């Protein structure tokens, strides 16, 4: 017990001495040992790295999980060292709703069929999002978090120790200046040598840790490349999924419209409602006659190679997306190319005849930007 009291008194004396030195430095009444310029640059660089890492980490978490309540839940699970429960993504939830709606409306109806197709694409988008979040968390967020919770805490601890060693050193310098008797000066000089040695040793330890920030930057750079690669793969998958869906809807939308018209005769007698709810569609010139093909022929029986373009009334169109022809009656398209288009009597309104040089075939309207 006596030892503990003495140690407590000694610690209190050291704390009081540091507090006095710190206060006098702030008041300009005591000298302060300055660190060299290189050391100060290392400190500034470390602080900058810590601040920006925190900001990037927080904003990336917001990007991956916009819901603040979900982020708090994940944080609590992480602190409790428990596995975060699997959470359904918004795309997967939307896919579930669309599938259930299609079953209620009838999976064989035009609307039900489209809901099923769109719902399946939303499910694939949700699965891709889940994989992106998992990959980004492992390859990017975890290394940043490990730096802040590991390396940075060690650096902060050693910096606090260095600050205390510096205060002790400057306090010894002040006591040496105030010492009058030879014995007091000798004691102060001996204490100064000890504190100088401790300060130099701690400064070297802290310097090595601060210089390790360069290695941290290299590691974070590698993690950033992996994050970009994951994000690129995710958006490429999303683009491909939506492109496939657009092709499906473009290819089958005519059938859906035809079924809807036959199932609901009243739809043909209500043009005001259709005009109010549907966007305006550019008018496509219609060929007045088709050589060798009756005007009443079904669109599925049309052979574009046997059709002659009209003498007037064609339009130019710019291709918005690549399109792969499904059969010999369709024309494959490349994004940004220009083609000539026109319509034929009896054709599905969602399709046109497209010409590019000597090539000719059906093309979906949704893939085109009609020009005046």
Notes on the structure:
It is built from eight helices and five strands. The chain is α+β, with helices and mostly antiparallel strands and 372 residues long. A five-stranded antiparallel beta sheet has the order 4-3-2-1-5. Strand 3 (351-356) and strand 4 (359-364) form a beta hairpin. The longest helix has 69 residues, at 110-178. The chain is elongated.
Number of strands: 5
Order of helices and strands: HHHHHHHHEEEEE
- Which geometry do the CA atoms define? elongated
Number of helical segments with 4 or more residues? 8
Mean pLDDT: 81
**Uncertain regions: pLDDT < 50 for 5+ in a row?**
253-284, 286-300
Quickly list its features.
64% helix; elongated; alpha+beta; 372 residues; 5-stranded antiparallel beta sheet
Structure described in brief:
It is elongated and about 120 Å long. Helices cover 64% and strands 7% of the residues. It has helices at residues 2-26, 37-64, 68-79, 90-105, 110-178, 182-211, 213-263, 271-277; strands at 315-319, 338-342, 351-356, 359-364, 368-370.
Topology summary:
Elements: H1 2-26, H2 37-64, H3 68-79, H4 90-105, H5 110-178, H6 182-211, H7 213-263, H8 271-277, E1 315-319, E2 338-342, E3 351-356, E4 359-364, E5 368-370
Antiparallel strand pairs: 1-2, 1-5, 2-3, 3-4
């Amino acid at each position: 017990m006596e030892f503990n009291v003495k140690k407590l008194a000694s610690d209190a004396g050291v704390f009081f001495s540091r507090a006095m030195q710190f206060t006098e430095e702030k008041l300009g009444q005591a000298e302060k040992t300055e660190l060299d310029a290189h050391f100060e640059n290392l400190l500034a660089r470390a602080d900058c790295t810590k601040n920006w890492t925190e900001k990037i980490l927080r904003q990336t978490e917001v990007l991956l999980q916009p819901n603040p309540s979900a982020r708090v839940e994940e944080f609590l699970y992480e602190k409790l060292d428990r596995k975060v429960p699997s959470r359904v993504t918004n795309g997967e939830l939307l896919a579930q709703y669309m599938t259930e709606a299609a079953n209620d409306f009838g999976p064989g109806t035009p609307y039900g069929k489209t809901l099923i197709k769109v719902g399946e694409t939303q499910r694939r988008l949700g699965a891709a999002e889940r994989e992106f979040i998992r990959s980004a968390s492992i390859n990017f967020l975890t290394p940043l978090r490990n730096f802040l919770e590991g390396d940075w805490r060690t650096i902060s601890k050693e910096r606090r120790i260095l600050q205390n060693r510096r205060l002790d050193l400057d306090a010894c310098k002040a006591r040496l200046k105030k010492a009058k008797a030879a014995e007091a000066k000798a004691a102060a000089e001996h204490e100064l040598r000890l504190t100088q040695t401790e300060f130099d040793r701690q400064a070297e330890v802290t310097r090595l840790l601060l210089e390790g920030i360069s290695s941290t930057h290299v590691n974070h750079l590698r993690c950033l490349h992996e994050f970009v690669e994951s994000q690129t793969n995710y958006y490429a998958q999303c683009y491909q999924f939506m492109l496939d869906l657009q092709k499906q809807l473009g290819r089958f939308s005519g059938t859906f419209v035809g079924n809807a018209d036959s199932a609901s005769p009243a739809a043909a007698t209500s043009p005001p409602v259709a005009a109010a709810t549907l966007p305006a569609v550019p008018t496509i010139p219609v060929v007045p006659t088709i050589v060798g093909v009756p005007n009443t022929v079904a669109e599925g029986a049309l052979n574009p190679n046997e059709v002659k373009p009209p003498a007037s009334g064609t339009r130019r169109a710019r291709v918005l997306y690549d399109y792969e022809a499904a059969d010999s009656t369709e024309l494959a398209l490349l994004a940004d190319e220009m083609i000539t288009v026109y319509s034929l009597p009896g054709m599905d309104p969602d399709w046109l005849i497209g010409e590019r040089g000597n090539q000719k075939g059906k093309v979906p309207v949704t893939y085109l930007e009609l020009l005046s």
